[in-house]
Amino acid sequence: MPHRSRAVPPAPPLVGRAHQLDALARHADAARAGRPRLVLLDGPAGIGKTALLRAALAEDGPLAGMTTLYGSCRAVDVATGYSGVRALFGGLGLTGRKGRTSPLLAGGARRALPALAADPGELDADPGSTFSVLQGLYWLAANLMADGPLVLVLDDVHWCDERSLRWLDFLLRRADGLPLLVVAAHRTGTGLTAPDALADLVAHHLPASLGLGPLDTAEVAELTAHSFPEQDPLPSFVGRLLSVTGGSPLEIVRLLRDLRSAGLGPDDTGTARLAQAGGKVVAASVRGVLEHQPDWVRQVARAVAVLGDEDPTYLAALGRVSVVHVEEAVEILRDAGLIHPGHLELSHDLVRAAVLDAVGASGVAVLRRRAARLLSDVGRSPEEIATQLLLVPGTPDDWAVSVLRDAAAQAEQRGACEAAARYLERVREAEPKDPDVLSRLGKALAETDPARSVTLLHEAHSLTTDVRARAATAVHLGLTCLAVQQSPDGARALTEALDALDAELGPEPEPADRELRTLTESALLIVGSDEKATLPDILRRTEGLTPQPGDTPAQRQQLAMLSVLSAAEGGGAEETVGRARRALRAPGVPLGVWSLLPTSLALSLADENEAAEEVLETVLRGSGDTAAVWTYVLALSTRSLFRLENGAVPDAMADAQTALEILGQERWGDTATMPHTAYASVLTERGDPGRALEALDAIKRPHLDRFVWEYHWYLMARGRALAADGDLDGALQVFGSCGASMAEAGLTNPVLAPWWLETACLLGEAGRGEEAGRAAAHGTRLAERWGTRRALGYAALARGAAARGTARTGALREAVALLADSPARSGHARGLSLLGRALVEDGAVREGREHLREAVGLARRCGCVALARRARDELIAAGGRMREVTASPLDMLTGTERTVAGLVASGAGNREVAESLFVTVRTVELHLTSVYRKLGVARRADLTEALREAGATARPAAERRPGHAKRRNP
User: Fold this and answer.
1) What's phi and psi for 735, nearest 5 deg?
2) Whole domain around residue 267: which residue ranges?
3) Ranges for the HTH luxR-type domain (predicted)?
4) Confidence (pLDDT) at 9
5) Which of 162, 186, 211 is the last residue of a domain?
6) Using CB atoms within 10 A as the burial measure, which of 100, 418, 492, 717 is most buried?
7) Which ranges of 181-248 does DSSP label H, i.e. alpha helix?
8) Are residues 50 and 189 in the same domain?
């Protein structure tokens, strides 16, 4: 029979860590009070990090009374996306049939399921995108915090996968006011699985650091006394033990256990034995235990080292022993301190390394290949099988390649792009020229390494010879180039692929080929219209295109792009609207973003305001459902600009500020332009051009002048802010640059960026009538071609600003009449103001005052504070009387407060509002408290009336969170 220790000492106490436990208690108290904390526990291997965490989690520990989730990352799982998250939440049992009905998965938390499930393919749910899964996990944590403080304790973070660390960052960014404590323990002096993700987590949240150092002499003596309670340790023994182990608790306990097993004590004989211990105490101790055991014990130890806490049947199969031998061996190894007392894992990674060192690298590789086959035979998921295969060096064989491909698909389903890329990198080792592998790898890297993603997609495209497959790779390449601001490269690839398709398919392609061609062409229109360098070629290409009926997704996407491009050229609003409406004609079929956003712009330019807003509501609803934050922010910013042009300034401010608040929580927020542009535009209308210029200066996007849409809206915002700030020359220069840039790109729509209107008004006011007349004439030609009442009204306004005498008043009367019958309410107010001033100057003072009075009223209702004040000043100067233009009560609300107030007034609960706006419930509560105070109401029921009296309405039901029949990296 093998040797077994008869006297098993009690578990060693935690010594020397009172300071760290006290610190954890203080951080726990802060979390209970709604001040979230990140604590980073670090130290070398064997220093006692896990023991400290267990003490903190004990019933009498500092975390008592809080909901605590503990998980430990494993080396074998480093490549598996969200493995750290599953270690934390796995004990909740949320992925089983019964668990999926848990209230913890209420609302947006259900989107967490792809990350939690071992096999997301088994879920009755759509595949998760990166943002939707992150958002779902956030709401799962929020649901847990609904009943009290939450502690997430993640051990061995040096082996944590990148996606789980990114989620912790995501969670902590949104944790303000939440009762949350995150404790992460990691080993110093060893490589990190995801160093960039951990570095970002630390940099963003400045964790409290709790470092664990070696034990001192008194603490070593205490541990020794615990192991040998019947014998006082000699000082010389304690000194030697400290010297040999360096104060490492793991090594101290290991040596004390070995001495006790050998029948020795903390005396001179024990001291002499300690003198024989080498530098690698744990490895030597493990070898000493195993060399006295039969081979089947060693085989079981190796099986546990490879598979971990598994069914004894599988351990027996891997070790090629009987189940009875497995059970006996586990008892032996547990008695020897090599296996955890509570579960079937080796007691420490140093123990695991020592067990596997005995068979060498080639022997370990054989074990891992056998383990992978075993897991496959028992029906484990591809990702679980792949964890073993990734640790086998060398080029994978055909079977392994198949498993790794399936594992990548599984990772893609849960939105774990880093894991998918890691699996595909190994596949590429075996199949370096497979276009499908390169294409999938490129798509997986698009978020984390966009430059390499484009390189791989280019390579995949060049290796693809079939024209149909080449068109498909060109679509992926083109849209990725668009995302990384390399759209000219994408446009070239798509053009070549489209020409090759035409040559191959002929004039009458089959239906499937026709759809592929239409998809490729629509992608070319999207990518090629991003930058000014490629837009002229795209516009020329559209001249000969016959719009299709819009019966398929690709046709609708093509129609959407044709509608916005025809609007950009300003050829005729009626034709544009017809194309846009056909692009939206898809009953019961969800439309993609590239069908919706272009049509919203086309409809807005054509004065189809209600239709444009409905389209944007659809985008907001869809991006809210999927937590597509970039799309959501872009849609909010776009709607802000639309609302501003239509004279809904408070609503425009609410959208812009909400977009900025969401943007501030995202890692990619620095590259966005649209929220800043929208915010600056609104600030100028509200009479704060200084802050508007500051907002524009915050834009950090490189090469902004290359882009078609964002650049010209940016220039309009800057020019208007400079003009309002009194810098006439600066404003004229910016508007001139806008006009030249639009001409270079072939953009001739008069209302897309009406630089000519602003130029004519500024020059006319400065007495430079001839120059103003040239700008007005330019705009008039474009407006007559486009034909909307807004465009024609702007043209008349520009002519009136440039003219004098009866010509001036005639043009301005025409402008007021046209704009009054258009959506441009702020433009109408501007026309009234200019007409009133012109009449006063021409001697028709009474009529002029009436128009100025009307201008003030309309401007105030629009929220155009600056215009209202200017018109009032003109009225007073003309002898009229009017009280000061005072702020509406709504002006006291921030944009986000206004948004929250509107949603709550429409009947949404705090949780619904939070999910809609990607913020915490606590944030909504704080905003709502501020709204009540500023509007002087005490409860929700009074809010609708308060908003109505202040001149606002509740937000429409369509803007409420997912789950209602109707609701609501720019």
Assistant:
1) -65, -35
2) 227-281
3) 886-951
4) 45
5) 211
6) 717
7) 195-205, 217-227, 235-245
8) yes
Rounded to whole angstroms, the Cα distance separating 176 from 179 reads 9
Q: How many CB atoms lie within 10 A of CB 562?
A: 26
Residues 144 and 252 in one domain: no
Task: Please report the pLDDT score of residue 844 as a whole number.
Answer: 93
Q: By the 8 A CB rule, do 619 and 631 touch? A: yes
Three-state SS at 154? strand
User: Both tokens of residue 128?
Assistant: 């998760």
In a domain, 941, yes or no: yes
CA distances from 954 to 900, 902, 947, 958, 960 (A): 10, 4, 7, 11, 11
Whole-number average pLDDT of the chain: 88
What gap in Å lies between CA 798 and CA 779, rounded to an integer? 8
In this predicted structure, the answer to whether residue 964 has a pLDDT above a threshold of 80 is no
Contacts of residue 863, defined as CB under 8 A and 6 or more positions apart, other chains included, come to 647, 648, 649, 650, 652, 653, 685, 686, 888, 891
Q: Are strands 150-155 and 180-187 parallel, antiparallel or unpaired?
A: parallel
Please give the Cα distance from 758 to 718 (Å, whole number).
12
Choose between 551 and 528: higher pLDDT. Answer: 528
User: Measured in Å, how far apart are the chain's first and last C-alpha atoms?
Assistant: 72
Q: Which residues have CB under 8 Å from 939's CB, separation 6+?
A: 932
Number of structural domains in the chain: 3
| CA nearest to 788, candidates 642, 640, 577 | 577
The answer to whether residue 234 sits within a structural domain is yes
Q: In the structure encoding, which two tokens stand for residue 711, read together? A: 């650049």
157 lies in the same domain as 276: no
Element (H, E) at 183: strand 180-187
Residue 614 within any structural domain of the chain: no
Token look-up 């008892």 returns 331
Question: Measured between alpha carbons, how far is residue 142 from residues 151, 184, 400, 422 in Å?
Answer: 12, 19, 40, 31
Q: Is 152 helix (H, G, I), strand (E, B) or coil?
A: strand
* 333 within some domain: no
Domain containing 133 — which CATH number? 3.40.50.300
Q: How is residue 58 annotated by DSSP?
A: S
- Model confidence at 636, pLDDT cuts 50, 70, 90, reads very high
pLDDT digits (tens, 9 = 90+) for 861-912: 888 989 999 999 998 898 878 777 665 666 667 777 888 888 888 778 887 8
818-871: per-residue pLDDT in tens?
999 999 999 999 999 999 999 999 999 999 999 999 999 999 888 898 999 999
Rounded average pLDDT over 642-661: 90
Residue 502, Cβ density class (10 Å: 0-12 exposed, 13-18 middle, ≥19 buried): middle
Exposure string of 132-141, with b = 16+ CB inside 10 Å and e = fewer, is bbbbbbbbbb
Asked whether residue 667 carries a pLDDT value surpassing 90, the answer given is no
Cβ atoms 227, 260 nearer than 8 A: yes
Question: Starting from the edge strand earliest in sequence, which strands make up the sheet with 180-187, in order?
Answer: 67-72, 150-155, 180-187, 37-43, 208-211
3-state secondary structure of 211: strand
Residues in CB range of 409: below 8 A, 6 or more apart = 382, 420
Q: Is the four-CA dihedral 447, 453, 457, 463 of positive or negative sign?
A: negative
Are 247 and 143 in the same domain?
no
pLDDT band with cut points at 50, 70 and 90 for residue 473:
very high
**Overall average pLDDT of the 444-465 stretch:** 89
pTM of the predicted model as reported, rounded to 2 decimal places = 0.78
Among the candidates 244, 265, 281, a domain finishes at 281
Residue 428 predicted with pLDDT over 50: yes
Q: In whole angstroms, give the CA distance from residue 80 to residue 411.
A: 8
Q: Are 493 and 501 in contact (CB under 8 A)?
A: no
**pLDDT reading at 970 higher than 70:** no
In the predicted structure, residue 209 carries a pLDDT above the cut 60: yes
Q: Residue 916 is part of a domain; what is its CATH number?
A: 1.10.10.10
Residue 967 has what pLDDT? 29
Q: In the structure encoding, which two tokens stand for residue 59, read together?
A: 């019933």
Q: Are residues 117 and 266 in the same domain?
A: no
